[in-house]
Amino acid sequence: MTITSQARSFDTAAAAYAANRPSYPPELLDAVAELTGRPWEGARVADVGAGTGLATRLLRDRGAHVIAVEPGPGMAAQFRLGLPEVPLVIGDGDHLPLASASVDVITYAQAWHWTDQRTSVPEALRVLRPGGALALWWNDSDSTLGWIAGQDARLRRLFGAEDSPHDPLARFRRLPAGLGFVHRHVPWTRTVPLDTHLANLASYSDFLVLGKEATEAFLAEEREVLAEVFPDGTVEEHYVVSLAVATR
């Protein structure tokens, strides 16, 4: 299974992705504006790997002029249902379908790891205006909480990744050297029904390529475990957004 094919697996679950994936806290966009020294209002922003538009919507609501870039036709179709007024082009970070020196900020929300940094870095630098910024971020479950650590361990066992425990700095270590990235962690929470929590797990790319039978079996067992932790059926999810910003 290649990175490209795993990334494109989201096309098969675009509606579920849009309905169940967590968005991002206001403090995240505040942090990006602070680190770039640039307000969102009036900024020209390219949201690359936009998916169903979770980050795009927040950027638009801050007053940015956003163009979305998304490689998957299924995700793009879902995006157009939710944000029909936002320009969207089919493309990816390795081959940005954007003019040189045309945007102030490029954002990658949960998407930079799907690119080849050998090409996505020069492409970002090409498209950014002088003084522009590249902002990358990921939502990660906060495994300092016991129930989340337990779930992470079960997920790692399922996918054969027991030797890869969660490392809050791992996202940053994989970034290209020389761009001067500034890092920040932004914690936040959301409260959702247990069904939504499990549906969010099912939208992970690893589950999308695992197969229906194995996925349903894991989720059924996970439901029993979490029903004891959250007997009222409401899950308080805790996240930490890993943010990296580099200015051109």
Describe the protein's architecture and organization.
The chain has 248 residues and is α/β, with parallel strands linked by helices. It has helices at residues 3-8, 14-20, 26-36, 54-61, 73-82, 117-127, 146-158, 170-173, 194-202, 205-210, 212-229; strands spanning 44-48, 65-70, 88-90, 103-109, 128-141, 182-193, 234-247. The chain has a single domain, classed as Vaccinia Virus protein VP39 (Rossmann fold, 3-Layer(aba) Sandwich). The protein is built from eleven helices and seven strands. The longest helix is centred in the C-terminal third of the chain and has 18 residues, at 212-229. It is globular, with a radius of gyration of 18 Å. It starts with a helix and ends with a strand. The model has no long low-confidence stretch (mean pLDDT 93).
Radius of gyration: 18 Å
CATH homologous superfamily annotation: Vaccinia Virus protein VP39
Tally of separate helices: 11
Distance between the termini: 34 Å
Mean of residue pLDDT values: 93
From N to C, what is the helix and strand string?
HHHEHEHEEHEHHEHHHE
Tell me what portion of residues adopts beta-strand conformation. 15-25%
The neighbouring-strand order within the major sheet is 3-2-1-4-5-7-6
Query: How many structural units, i.e. domains?
Result: 1
